[in-house]
Structure formats: structure tokens, C-alpha cells
Amino acid sequence: MKKLAAAIFLFCICACSSVRKVEELQSGIIAPVLSISEDFVPEEIEVDVLVSDTIKVSDAQGREMIIMKAVKDEDGEMVATDVIAPVVVSATFRNVAERHGEVDLCFDVTVPADMVESRWQLRLRPVLGVFSDTLHLAPIFITGQKYRRAQLRGYQRYRRFLDSIVLDTTVFIREGQLEIFLRRNLPQIYALKTDSSYVSDEHFASLYGITEKEAVQHYTNRFLLASNRRRIAGKKKMFARYVKAPLRTDIRLDTVISSDGGDIIYNYVHTMQVPAGLRKAEISLSGSVYEENRELCTMPRSEPLTFYISSLSSLSESSERYLVKIIERRVQANTACYVEFASGSAQIDTALGNNSGEMGRIAENLEELLGSGRFDIDSIVVQASCSPEGSWGFNTGLSRRRSEAVCSYYSDLRSRDTIHLEFIPREIPENWSGLEKLVERDTILTASQKSEIERICLNPDPDLRERELSQLACYRHLREEIYPRLRIVRFNFYLHRRGMVKDTVHTTVLDTAYMNGVQALRDRDYKRAITLLRQYADINTALAYIALDYNASALAVLDALPSGPKVEYLRALLYARKGKDRDALQCFVRACEMDPGFVHRANLDPEISALKKKYQISYKL
Questions:
Q1: 391 shares its domain with 491
Q2: What value does the mean pLDDT take over residues 502-513?
């Protein structure tokens, strides 16, 4: 009796403790702590080499200075040391550096020991805030031992259920009764018990009056078979019944460690692509407490951590670049229209084919040129061409008459206009060059047919050429599909710029290709930036190379540029990547002397901040 009372007393104490914890979680008295990781070191800035104890560098005035590794003594003073040891560089993670268009957001989630309950599962959900959008990251589960045992117990019960399902249904056949039936009623079949020859079900039925399937079904335990089928059909239902809290596979699998105080510390690293214009990202944390997959309470969202994102693209120069452009006074433009004529006729019929649309399009072009105010039209040369059908002499006259008809059409159309336009007719009797181009691009003609047409076109006599073409098997295709496209009217517009006296003028225009490259650099589209900026070989080109780790190309560009704070700083960064500390420090010192702002900029780039931490240097040196 005393033992029962003690057990009830302990149960009441545990229940009260759990209720109190739930209330404290809901009110925020107890909550997981979100913090910047202090011990996280980005992989790319680890230094795994032995470092010399002293380095000599020169400043911009040529003065030599010595930089030594330093440590704090027992009084807190920085003193030089000659200890040579591997060094792992740490960085400030509230400012994170973008590399290759990505950043690593590293933070610690600390769960106080008071939050942990053996029967509970804490489900913590980090939320990433970018611009005005939010992204739910993979959750963190802190599972108590009793909660996990209950989970595994449910899986064990479900496994026993699965083991009860019979996969081989032949075990439900009453083989003994079937054998007795065959021995008594069908002895001739029973005699073939050890014969493995195949007999079809239809042949079996024709011999003995029943099928093998009917005999097997008659001596099958239908009750057990139906029960087995129900088990198979109810697998999902039984899983939900036995496994109240399924194991999740979409959670983070980073190592969870426990501090000396019993708290659980979870180091979370999220790598994200950095969109254009992003300057900061925020991480907040919310969560819930579950017991047997039943939500006990939710925890209020924590205050966000802010990661300020630095990028080498912020060092880009935005100065505009201009090109020298030569503007000619005289300008030439051309267009073509497909005007259909009746066979052997030069009369324009706007109702024929698409003549109305084509002629209207040319009229719109004329109005656009005249109304732009930028050009004056000197003359318009109209060239009409015919297909090879007919004799050369006839086609010469026909093409001339057609070009004159087009000129008259537009002259009459603008007869009331105060601006006089000069139309000059020209003729192309037979458009053989156009024929060769169309045959080459044709997808119906075979290679051998194209070769034959090409051979025929070498004949200097145009009439013989046309006669030989008419004897080809593909002549119908030529006449119906290609010849109509040779009957065109081409307009050549000869213009001059209004108000311009000199034949040529040199002016400067904005280099849009360069400016697009700079914008691509700022948008962190580094591959496109390199494509557009490669030919300029300036500081922006070097930045695009550095962003994609094309270090040799970037250094070659920087070495060819005049010395300046940005040039020296980027050279220092590249030398640091190569492990050339002396060269890196010398370039960094020069950059800081030219522009002291780079002392603080160094904290944003892990390559340079690693050097500062390694040698405990400051601008005062």
C-alpha cells in the first residue's frame, strides 16, 4: 500500500512538473536560444600550413616594416611569439561573405536543459526572411528517450503485423485433401504426380471434365485467404494505428552536442543562393512540443538574427564608359515587297494575292521616314525582278515595265504631297542569285538535285539555263514554290541627315555592352559579366574573374592596371588565396595607406580577415 501511494505521489509530481514546463514554454519563460555561431569556420579560409614567425613588407614610401605573429601574455599585452603551429582562421559571422553567388548562414540553436522532457519531442522550425518573403528551413527535432521508445515500439508492432501477412498463397491449399480426391476419383491424373510435363488448363479440362484451377480453388481455405487479403489491403490503416509518430526524414542531420550544463547545442548551416540586391537575411525560430504526436503547445517566434551579406561586387566601379561613333551624313536603307503580277503583265492589281498589304506596308515606311524629322529622302530606287521563265529579252522588258509601274503607283499616291519624291526605276531581268540562295535553303530538294541545279546555273546563257531546268524532275517544285518568291520589288532609300552639313561627324555614345556587364556583376550573374567585360580588362573585369575563382586571370588583369587602393586590395585577396602571405600583407598595407577605409573592409572578406587575425595586425602598424 505504501509503495502504491509513493508511486501515485511521484506521478503527480511529474505531471505537475510537465504542466509547469508547458506553461513556461507558452509564455516564453523557457525558450530555445538562437545565436551566431562563434566557432564556425568557413572551409575556404582554413589555413593548414605552417606560418613563418616574421614577415617583412614595405609600405608605399618604401619603408620596411616587420610583422610578427603575436599572442596575449598573462597581463593581456600583445607580444611577439616564434611558435610555429598550424593555424585555423576564424571569422566574424554576423557579416557573411558571398562567394560564387552563395553564402553560408551559420547559427546555433541552444535548447536549455529545462525544456527537455523524456516523453516529449521538440520540433524547432528555423525561418529564413529574405526581402519580404519567408522560407521555412528543414526543422530540428529534439526527441526524448521515452518518446523515441514509443516510436520504435509502434514500428515493432507494425513489423509484427507485416510478418503475419502470407506472401505465398499456396499455403492455403489443402494439399492432403486434394491428393486424396485425385487418388480416388482421377487415378490417371494421380499417376502423373511426379510428371513435370506442362499441360494447358484447356487441355486438362477436355480430358477430365474439370480444370486445374477449379480443383485448386475447391480445396483452398477461402476464409484464411480472404483474411490474408484484408491484411494486405489494410497496411496503411494499420501503420497509422500502430505508428502514432512516424520517423521524419526531412529534418537536419547535423551533429547535436551537449554542453557541460546539459543544454543541447545544434549547429545549423544553411547555404543559400544570393539574389540580386540582397543586403541582409534574417533567421528566426519557432517551434512546438509534441507528446505521442499530439501537440501540447507552440512556442512564440524568437527575435531574428540578422546576417549582413558582403560581396566583392560592391567594389565595382560605376563610371560610365563611352565609345567614339562615326555618323555619316548619307544613309541608305532598303526593303523588299512581294508584288504579284498577272502572267506577262506589268499592271498593278491591289486585289491580287497580298498586294494590298505589301503596297500598304511600303507606303507606311515612306510616311515613317518622312515624319521622323531626322532624315530627308534624296531618291528611291525601285528594282523589279522576274523569275527565269521566258526569254531573257522578254524578261528584261517586263521587269523594266513593272518597276516603272511601281514608281508611277507611288508617285500618283503622293501627287498631292508638298514633298517631292524622286522614284528611279531599275530592272533585274532574271533573279538567278536569288534562285541559288533559295535552292540552297530548300528542305524538299535532295542533295543530288541541288548539285544538278548548281551545275546548270554555271551555264553563261540564261535561256539555255532555264531550258535545262525545265527538263528536271523537280521543275514543278521550282515553278510553284521557288519562282514566285523571285518576283520581288526592292526599294533602296537614299537619305541624308536633316541639318547635317559635314559628310562625317565623330561623337561619343554610351557603351551599353560595358554597362550591361557592370549590371550583371552587381546582379551576381558572374558568367555573363565575364562574357561582357572580358575585352575591357579593367577593375570590373578582375572582380568578375575573382568572383568565380579565376584567380590567375584576375591577377593578370590587376598587374596591368595602375596601382590604386582597390587594385592593391584585390591583389592582396588573390595572394591570400594562393597562400602568399608576405605579398598579400604588403598589398594590403599599401591599400590601407591609400584608403584607410579598407582596414574595415578587410573584416568583410574572409581571405583578408584571416590574415589580420593570424598576425594580429591593425592599421597602426
A1: yes
A2: 73
C-alpha 303/C-alpha 282 separation (Å) is 10
Cell of 247: 520517423
Residue 254: which of 157, 346, 117, 137 has the closest Cα?
A: 137
> What is the sign, positive or negative, of the torsion defined by CA atoms of 7, 8, 13, 14?
positive
Distance from C-alpha of 42 to C-alpha of 508, rounded to nearest angstrom: 47
Burial of 518 (0-12, 13-18, 19+ CB in 10 A): buried
CB 190 within 8 A of CB 202: no
Q: Nine-digit cell at 438?
A: 533559295
473 with 546, same domain: the answer is no
What contacts 227, CB < 8 A, 6 or more positions away? none
Q: Cα 416–421–425 angle (5° rounding)?
A: 120
* Domain termination residue (choose one: 505, 525, 554): 505
Give the other-Cβ count within 10 Å of 378's Cβ.
14
Q: How far apart are CA 101 and CA 103, in angstroms?
A: 7
HSE on the CB side for 526, CA within 13 Å?
20
Distance in angstroms (rounded) separating the CA atoms of residues 296 and 385: 88
373 and 470 part of one domain: yes
- Alpha-helix residue ranges (DSSP H) falling in 421-511: 432-441, 447-456, 462-470, 475-477
Residues 387 and 480 in one domain: yes
pLDDT in tens, 302-321: 888 888 888 888 888 888 88
CA contacts within 13 A on the Cβ side of 109: 29
Percent of the chain with pLDDT over 90: 16
Cell 548551416 maps to which residue? 269
- 547 CB-contact burial (10 Å; exposed 0-12 / middle 13-18 / buried 19+): buried
Q: Which of 56, 40, 37, 60 is nearest to 568 (CA)?
A: 60
Alpha-carbon distance of 453 to 474, in angstroms, equals: 10
Range of 601's domain? 511-615
42 assigned to some structural domain: no
Among 505, 533, 562, where does a domain finish?
505
3-state secondary structure of 143: strand
Type of residue found at 326: I
Q: Give yes or no: residues 465 and 358 share one domain.
A: yes
- Report whether 30 contacts 24 (CB < 8 A): yes
Cα separation, 132 vs 5, in Å, equals: 58
CB under 8 Å to 113, separation ≥6 — which residues? 261, 262, 263, 264
- Residue 451 sits in the same domain as residue 547: no
Contact call for residues 334 and 492 (beta carbons, < 8 A): yes
Judge whether 562 lies within some domain: yes
Please check whether residue 456 lies inside any domain of the structure.
yes
Kindly report, residue by residue over 133-174, the tens digit of the pLDDT. 888 898 888 888 888 888 888 888 888 888 888 887 777 777
Question: Do 499 and 549 reside in the same domain of the chain?
Answer: no
Whether 453 contacts 434, CB under 8 Å: no
Residue type, 196: S
pLDDT given for residue 312 in this prediction: 87
Please say whether the beta carbons of 521 and 529 come within 8 A.
yes
